[in-house]
Amino acid sequence: MMPLRPLAVVTPRGEEELLRSLAVEGAVPLGGGSDLIPGLSWELASGDALVSLAGVPALRRTDALADGSVCLGAAVTLAEVARHPLILGAYPALADAARAVGSWELRAQGTIGGNVCLATRCRFRNQPPLWRDALQTCYQSGGDVCHAAPASRTCVAILSGDTVPALAALGAQLEIWGHAARRLPIEDFYSGDGAHHISLAKGELLAAIHLPADPPTAAFRKWRARESIDFPEANAAVSAVWREGAWRAPRVFVSAVGPAPVRVVAAEALLDGADWSEDLLRAAGELARKAVHPYDNGQLNVAGRQIAVRGLVARALGDLQNARRERGL
Ligand SMILES: Cc1cc2nc3c(=O)[nH]c(=O)nc-3n(C[C@H](O)[C@H](O)[C@H](O)COP(=O)(O)OP(=O)(O)OC[C@H]3O[C@@H](n4cnc5c(N)ncnc54)[C@H](O)[C@@H]3O)c2cc1C
Ligand code: SF4
Q: Looking at the domain covering 57-211, what would its CATH class be?
């Protein structure tokens, strides 16, 4: 870790003060800082004033709402998500995804909002400044080249937040605060350009995540270089509703293979209402493999990451079948 230059940290206590603080030039939202602080130290992230979200009670809540949905504040830590009874009871795939992040120290520090807004990663960029100086400046830093995908006109750095596919499979909605307060499905939050990968304007922040009432059954799977602590090389989450003797309305998401999660609609069409034999699950995995096109900017090789997607999706679908059998359905 390189020394960190002096930075101002402010801790607003309410929504208005928070939005005022974020509107200041150079202000950046600070969740747990588990990625932002190393990023600032390596000059990967910019910002002069860190606006801590920890002091705003609305961002720290996990509430069951009257309509049966659950509202998860953006500043709730991943450790809290992984052990909260409401999450374990109705959204266990999200608890699994939160538990798959890094190490317990990172989960104790890192927030769900920081995970959803996590900066994209690339092995040509997540390096010390001296290492990066040896390369031509790429799109992510305002240059006009991509070392990972020379034919690409945009940055293809990797969306690495593990909770993203689980939230997408569950049908989560994001609540954004700022001058254009809004709610949107999580899959619409990502632009597909790794240099500006989330749809947040200056002064806006992710305030909360809304999890649906009557959630589908869901499962999450991750592939990484080291089981003990590592970013995903690929991850996947699936969900479906068991109704009238068949799985309906399946949702299949693969992530960590590019700057945005990939929804595998071909697999969803294959699975909807069908007999989920082993062969069918393998075929759905194969459709997912064909739907993703990772670039050579992760730690592991491209072919391996693409093949892993097939297994991740087939196994996650198998997890749904196991969950159904356990419930005697
Ligand atoms: C060694 C190591 C291993 C890791 N392994 C994993 C892993 O396996 N899987 C994984 O998913 N992550 C991993 N991480 C990344 C990180 O620890 C987690 O993603 C964590 O959840 C980030 O949350 P945070 O609150 O610490 O975010 P911060 O570091 O505080 O912020 C991350 C980014 O999000 C922005 N931000 C934070 N909160 C908000 C908000 N509410 N609204 C708008 N913007 C916001 C910040 O400005 C910053 O740009 C790893 C990090 C390290 C250092
Ligand atoms: S994907 Fe390309 S543009 Fe983006 S950080 Fe990597 S090398 Fe730079």
A: alpha beta
